[in-house]
What does this fold into?
Amino acid sequence: MEQFDTGARIAVLENEVKNIAKDIKEIRQENKEQHNILMAKMESMDKRLGIVERWRWMVVGGALVVGWLVSKYFA
It folds into this structure.
């Protein structure tokens, strides 16, 4: 009688372990998908930031040229 209870308990625990392993696989898959989405968004943001930085330096350079011209011809 005791062996039957032990065998049944082992079967239940094995089933629970399989369910947990399945859940872990699903969580890992979701994690990979989220990682890929975040990486794509980060790359997009990096490109946009690069464009903004280029414009910033163009404006700064233009302001320096205008400032130099103003100081040279109007001072």
